[in-house]
Amino acid sequence: MISLILTILGGALLLIVVLAPLVIGHEYGHFIMARRNGVRVDEFGIGFPPRIGKGKQVGETLYTLNWLPLGGFVRLAGEDGQSTEKGTFAAASLWAKTKILLAGVTMNLIIAIVLLFILCLVGIPGLGSQFEPSFLHPTYAQSKQLILTNVEPGSPAAKAGIVRDDYILSANGQTLTSEIELQDFTAANAGKTVTLVIRHNGSIQTRQVTLRQPNNQGILGVSPQQVYKLRYNPFEALIAALYITGTLFIATIVAVVNLIIHIPSLIMGIGSQTVPSSAQAASGPIGIAFVLSSITRLGLAYFFLIVANISVALAALNVLPLPALDGGRLAVAYVRKLTGGKISTDTEGLYHGIGFIALMLLVLLITYYDLRKF
Length: 374
Known about the structure:
Structural class: alpha+beta
Number of domains: 2
Radius of gyration: 25 Å
Distance between the termini: 10 Å
Helix content: 40-55%
Number of helices: 11
Strand content: 15-25%
Order of helices and strands: HEEHEEHEEHEEEHHHHHHH
Shape: elongated
Oligomer: single chain
């Protein structure tokens, strides 16, 4: 339990380190596009209030540092709708508002593409066939191997001295490169003593393991995961980065919509013994922190792959018409235009306020399931 808490705390710190520059980049997109469209930026803040010092006024914008290191923000003139004079967000055209609100999404996508492009050049961790363009021809920067993400205490593997982060290379002379191959081997040899060749801390070692008979605990008592890396030439690396970004973007939107649709089952599953499938596929702050802390043990490539994934997720979330986020604000702007301005500022504020509370409750619900999963 203590180990799990330390893992989550370490991941939470990593998450703050990751989110801060991604959010600042997102807000910088709003900042640049607002200025290009004649909308005054009253404040550009690094972190969230309370403010450190008085800040520095440069032209029309106050630049501030704040105590909460959770990213940053821009405060546009007239974004609350109270002021409609020239140079305010409220007075800007619908097209200008669209560009300003989507500029943050664009910045997050650009960050992801750059990170993925670099990874594709040096060796990007395998994401599975769904995210790998079949029309390109990469080479293996690291061949397919099996790493153990967990070893059950007291299991046959643990008794043989096998630990988490060991690689299983072969079993009884049979090379293993996938979870299915390991599962088939252990099932065929249940109850027998087998010879496993592993890589432990960089050295190749042999282990004799007596497998259990089939039961609810697993025959070997490990959780394996296939890992590999692909490398592309510069031109194909750019194509692959664009393809992966687009695929992740669409997959994230589908996942969020599916999560919202299944909110009733999430609520009904609170007292059940199993975690609903919709919650299995989703992760809140705790889940992301746990994944960050766990996967960074595999190396920097995996860390930056997660960073790129989070950047795409931020973009996808801010495209959807969710209250209090960019997509929600943009949706209100278009509905106001279509209805001839019949949506009042108070109504918009109520929509964002109630919607934000609902989103936070959903995050808490996912966090509850994260704690159950991990």
